[in-house]
Amino acid sequence: MSAHMVLQARGVNAFWGKKQVVFNANAQFEQGRWTCVVGPNGAGKSSLLKVMAGLMPSQGEVILHQTPLLQWSPRERAKRLSWLGQQAIGGDDLTVHDVVMLGRLPHHDGWTGPTAQDHRVVDELLERFALSDWRARGLGTLSSGERQRVLLARALAVQAPVVMMDEPIANVDVPHQADWLDTVQQLTRSGTTVVSVLHDLNFALRADQVLVMQAGRVVMQASPQDTSLHDCLQDVFEQRLSFHQVQGHWVALTV
């Protein structure tokens, strides 16, 4: 495996109860690259992400930093791989500040209170996501989109080299979706590996790589610039897309 390959799935199978939802999936994710997982509803996107984050039992193997995922202790894994799930929950009675501070927990052997570094990290994230004015508000007082921004800040507070996000901009308004895209690009420029599931193909086509799934199988993983990826997406989405370049970026329109 390449020294720059930080996360890999090898022959992964996963099940919900007795139903198989991921079939012999292979995927690889390079340092400092953003990969977006796309496909129709029920394609197995979220399940594959959960397997790679160690949150769902599976067969096959997941490799994190050249070591099988199961060989990492939970704390060491949490320091290296940060997770933001769909409809992630948080303590409604906790303040926004305290929720984001929870992202620093993997860096402590025992919780003796936040360090100066913890405060610097959290304050910067509150500022980045326009949350500073809400720092004393309870999470339960926020809208679903506002909560999602707080939980994203918590995931990034870990400062893990791999960040995995399942529908991170669901219910988030358009300006803050643009902020999320800018954040992802900043992360990859600093060497962080980002893996996300998105339904919005036009956001997905801004990624470095797009991984296409259908019926629990990985169909293709390629650059958005690769026209064979466009053909693959056409097949997966029943020939209901057309692709166009706008200001140097590919966009998908429904037809």
Overview of this protein structure:
This protein is α/β, with parallel strands linked by helices. The protein has one domain (5-254): Rossmann fold (3-Layer(aba) Sandwich), CATH 3.40.50. Helices cover 31% and strands 30% of the residues. The chain contains eight helices and twelve strands. It has a six-stranded mixed β-sheet with strand order 6-7-8-3-9-10, sandwiched between helices. Strand 1 and strand 2 (19-30) form a beta hairpin. Helix 4 (116-128) runs antiparallel to helix 5. The chain is globular. The mean pLDDT is 93.
Topology of this protein?
Elements: E1 5-16, E2 19-30, E3 34-38, H1 45-52, E4 58-64, E5 67-68, H2 74-80, E6 81-84, H3 96-101, H4 116-128, H5 144-157, E7 162-166, H6 174-189, E8 193-197, H7 201-204, E9 209-214, E10 217-222, H8 227-236, E11 241-246, E12 249-254
Parallel strand pairs: 3-8, 3-9, 6-7, 7-8
Antiparallel strand pairs: 1-2, 1-4, 4-5, 9-10, 11-12
